[in-house]
Each structure stands twice: as structure tokens, then as C-alpha cells.
Amino acid sequence: ELWWGYMKDLLEDQNVDLMLQKIAAADYHGAKVTVVQSTCPSMIGISGTVVMEGRSVLAITNNGTKIVPKSGSVFRMSVPQGDDQIDVELVGNRLMFRAAERSVRKFKAKK
Length: 111
Known about the structure:
Layout: H1 2-11, H2 16-25, E1 32-37, E2 47-53, E3 57-61, E4 65-69, E5 74-81, E6 84-91, H3 99-102
Antiparallel strand pairs: 1-2, 1-5, 2-3, 3-4, 5-6
Keywords: Cytoplasm, Endonuclease, Hydrolase, Nuclease, tRNA processing
GO biological process, one term: tRNA 5'-leader removal
Family: Belongs to the eukaryotic/archaeal RNase P protein component 1 family.
């Protein structure tokens, strides 16, 4: 899978803090995600592959395409960590940028 290879290269040999920053700034096109929280109850549980990312939405396809607002949503995805994988949750409110804008931003850890 192309996205998995992209993330494996991006996250290779990183400490956890740097890894989380890189995940937050990554391009999600092709990522497999699941909506685990949303202010819109009908969005919870939607899972599939990200086919489009806008400033405020993700388009997720799996037997049809659903447009999911980033605001008020939490997305779960698996990312490679060495020969294993870990699940991470992304808070949509902190991703309210296009992928190109997000890739040059610096993210601070939220305590």
C-alpha cells in the first residue's frame, strides 16, 4: 500500500514526540481511517480510505464516499512503528488546514 510505505519512510527511526508531529503534518490521502467521535452521531463508525482532504473535511470511501467534517470529529488510524504498527487518534479541530498548509506548520503538544 502506497500510503503505508510513505508513512514508514516518514516515521523511520523517530522518537515519539517527533513521530507525533510528523503524523500531524502528514498527507492523509490513501490513509485508512475510522471516525471514533463526532458531533454528528451518524458519522461515528464510518471507516475507509481517505480520497480527498479539504480544509475542513475528509472524503472517506468504502462502498460509497462520505464527506466527514473535521470539526468536532476524532479519527483513528494505524501507522507503522518499526516492524509493528500503532493506532493513533487525530483530533479533527487541530487538522483544520489543507494538507499542503499543514505540512509546513509546527504543532505543539497539547497537555
